[in-house]
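Each lists sequence, tokenised fold; shown next:
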Amino acid sequence: VEKLLSKLICDYTLTDSHGLITSPNYPHSYPSSVVCTYKIIQPREKVVSLSLSHIDLGWNDTDSCSGRLEIYDGDDDLARRLDVLCGTDYFIPSRVINSTTNALFLKLESYSSIGENVGFQALYKTTDLKCGGLFTERNGTVRHPTYGTTYRNNENCDWVIQAPPRHTIQLRFTSFYTESTHDWVKISELHEGRIIDLITISGSSIPAAASPVITKGRILYIHFRSDSSNVYTGFRANYTFIDPLELN
């Protein structure tokens, strides 16, 4: 925790399989002019479930929020935003927010005098991820966990590849075999605050063999879906981060 430019800054990284998260000073008044981040990081085969039990971020004299809590599906605030909470709800039921990867990021920020508002309280836990995950290494391979045998019916899997700021991502498939038109892989990216669909692939040919997928932004999504009939071996793809400065 540090004080910087009249703001209280606090950053937490949580790696336990379950735990309690609260605003500073909870259950007493949380500070004004605070920015706190909570990064929940779990093994790649896990996902995170966050249960919010108390929200009391407050209102100011103009009926706008005194503070806000943002929740992101990844390990920083450049990932896909799942929810934004502000104001006061003393009677909030246990509201559950689930990640699609092994990371969840919370950002608490207050703007003005807080008064008696106590902030928030939440519990998190991890559960097994059948398929999917978050990749942040510079190079890697993405594949269905049962690749080499067959995937399962009625699956929905999400992989997220997240490069550092000012980098892009190159993805090249090395193997691909799904039920044509029924089981498919969709590639999307997050660019300038919008999710843009790049390509949807199905069948038994290796896509983009000569020209790999290259993003404009730093976050790439891979979504796999299978139906209730035939199953095949799935896919495998290699990725690498591209630093524009290294190309000059």
